[in-house]
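Before going further, learn to read the protein records used in this course. Taken together, the tokens spell out the fold as the letters spell out the chain. A record is reproduced here so that you can trace the correspondence yourselves:

***
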Amino acid sequence: MGNPKKNAATVGIAGNIFLFIAKLAIGFVSNSIAIISDAFNSLTDVVNSIILFFSVKVGSKSADEDHPFGHHRSEPLGGLIVAVLTIVLGFEIARIAATRLITKTAPIFSIPVVFILLLTILIKSFMYLYTRSAWKKTKSTAVFVLMVDHRNDIWISSGAIIGFLGANYNIVFLDALVAFFIGIWIIKVGFSIGARNVKYLMGEAPKPELVDKISRIVLNVNGVRSIQKIKAHYVGVLLQVEVHIRVSRNISVYRAHTIETNARKAIEKLREVDRAFVHVDPIIKSRPH
């Protein structure tokens, strides 16, 4: 089976290379800006898939002397690079489409163009389902970026068909109009991808529901009387958790250490957690005044 994350990125690279070549050839033959823009979207997808492949490869490395807490930031860093490239592409497509709207340039209708767009939808649907399966197994942010990109390409190619068919009915502005909205859609996707990955790079706290889940796990550890404080933040795509637990002041140091170890291991069993730090505090009863 191999690594599901690397496999998803490899499928993305191969599929997008094929789609870029096919769509670019048909786009130039038919003079369709919608198809040409979709072709360069596929080229960007090739670059994106390569970036994400290497970010997954680096992120899979074990901790070393230079990176004692692992390489988990590589995946959101790759996702952020993809977001920037996606936004730039979207602006360029929108600019070209706006120019075509002004000059009223229309594509040349042909059956092969419709065929290649339908083939694109078919191939992208397979790539989306394959990548979604990999994401469900790994919850990788890099694989999520690939999955969203494949899904959006299905809608983009569907829109290109609408614009292209419009030219056959002398609606000359429809192709450029669809391309313009394709550009806006790509920009929106780029900002969405960027926002999702920035939170991992900035060390954002997880959702309260996940913190509550960690708290319940800790409180179920034998010997933990209460939680004094709990904090968590992302280091890349995984969490580091700091928990202050309270235990009976009458137990031995060995027993307190065992409780701490059990609590730490219980937290680190969670798929979302990379490392947990547990501090033990004795319960000190207040003295009467």
